[in-house]
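G., the chain you wanted modeled:
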Amino acid sequence: MAETRTTDTPSTNLAGQTSGRGLASMDSSVGVVSQSKQTKGKTTIANGVVAKIVGIAAREIEGVKDLVSTGAAASISGLATRVTGGDTHAKGVSVEVGEREAAASINIVVIYGVNIPQVADAVRRNIINRVEEMTGLTVIAVDIAVTDLYFPGEETDEQHPHVQ
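Predicted structure as tokens:
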């Protein structure tokens, strides 16, 4: 099993953006490696686990309707998830995880009428608290992109299918 190491080289996240943080992107199979002298072993947390924590923590905040993926690759991934009934907890989330630190980028849809900066601050605080409490990692950044507005009362075809 490979270990993720913190380096000074840039890494690339799922959106193809290069980060100078020196953390491994979510594509890595291993997110966190820590060794404890007390347990005489190591604990490994997959990057996907951190991404799910981020996604769930963001959705816990009032005013957040959903998280969304962006780009062509995200469209294909989203279609595959809907067809296979796959897990959507990490949808719209990109994480970079090192041995002791993590950073996240998320794309959210907020409900029309909310104070967007306040919702974003609440999301950021909740993500930091949840990730740090659950994994012991220090969260160094949470980038939030508000990509759409949800208008209550406007139903989509997905919510009311024509064929039942």
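The CA atoms of residues 23 and 98 lie 5 Å apart.

Shout if anything looks off.
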